[in-house]
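Sorry to interrupt, but I need a hand with the structure work. Can you supply me with one protein entry, sequence and fold together? No commentary is needed, just the two lines. Leave the record below and I will have a look.
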Amino acid sequence: MLRMTRHTGHARWYRALFATIALSHCTRRAAPSSVSGTDASVTTVAPRAPDATSIPTALDAAPRPPRPSVDLISTLGLSLAVSSRVDNAGDLPEHLVDRNPETAWNSRSEDLVGAWIDVRVPPGATVTGLRMIVGYARTNRRGQDLFTMNHRVSRIEVLLDGRSLGEFAMDVDTRTLQTVQFSGGAGTYRVRVAAMLAGERPDWREACVSELELLGTVPDESPGDAGARAVRPTVGVGALPDERPAVPTETSVVATGPSTNVAAYCRARMRDRDRAQCRQEDPEGARSDACFCGLPSDSLEDAPSGRASLARAAGAVLGARIIPDFTDPSRGVQCVALVQTQSGWYAVGDLASCMRAPNMTGDLRRMIVRRFDAQEANGTTSLTITWDALSSDLQEGEQAGPLCGESVELRCEVAATGAPTCRRIVRVPRDCSRRWRAMLTD
């Protein structure tokens, strides 16, 4: 009995010890409590809310949607260049990217297969293809279909930094944008004319493209709406706007005539004008037609500004004048140089579009003559005319487009008899830099 009692006491002692240890352990893990008498009320502490910045949201977790494919040229205002331009102030290089299918870039005559368009694409952008209209998609007011009358592009080659991405056949019967698919990243893309279909007019020998779009995605840091035009594209001739050719480009100019005097030249031009088209060019119908030739300079809004006639004769050059000629409305108002020799007056080509036509109320055309002189040396007489030709077209939404310009020189070797031999030299190729804006305020 005594041994059983001792064992029972030990068991009770061990149970009390274990209960005490368990109670102490639970007290350390439990929340604080307040005790009143024998009743305990427990206050629960809410767990701390996690930092909101540490919780991944559904937006962060979801993959970024792919950027839409857009026309990179108009969206980013990319720099372009064309191989050449036609000697015609009515068809401008900028017409390639003006989003108007009834205007077109026209190359220089005979610049057909091998003519090219360059587009520089910035880092971060991707290219997926292009769209282009392969001809001059316009029917003029005389009902002439310029699409079938001009050459059309039947095949192109696309190159990236000189590396060919392939050749692509084009449909010469489609007058709307055609899509060509290829892929690439940043760099300079060249669209080269690889083959052409001749037009119905054999004497029209220019490459024509009404519109060009380069498709792809913009860099991540590009601001604003992907479809909005941030900066208007800049188009150079012969090289990208910031890559000027080291050597000026030259073309020969054919002199026509002679006429007995300036008035005789203008009478012949007015006699050959298209009267129906000239009547359509008069916006108010105040005259029988809007065409003219050689009006006094005080009624031509200073066209051209600067010297418009030769101050002093020299050698075989008895006189020279620059006059406006608006007898072919499709070409705008052209300033023409007339040179007088013993044989009469010779017209030595259209110098520039020197004023806006009657129906071009929002556009700007200006010719600023910088030099006009004749010199005789060693029995040879030379005539030199230099000028800046400025232009700005009215864009969509009735907004003025960029002011563009080029610096040009006409140099003629003149004999006492016979037609002068002339060259047209582009000293500063056409671009749309800020320098031209300052010239209007000189």
Q: What stands out?
A: The CA atoms of residues 3 and 312 lie 150 Å apart. The domain at 70-237 is CATH 2.60.120.260 (Jelly Rolls).
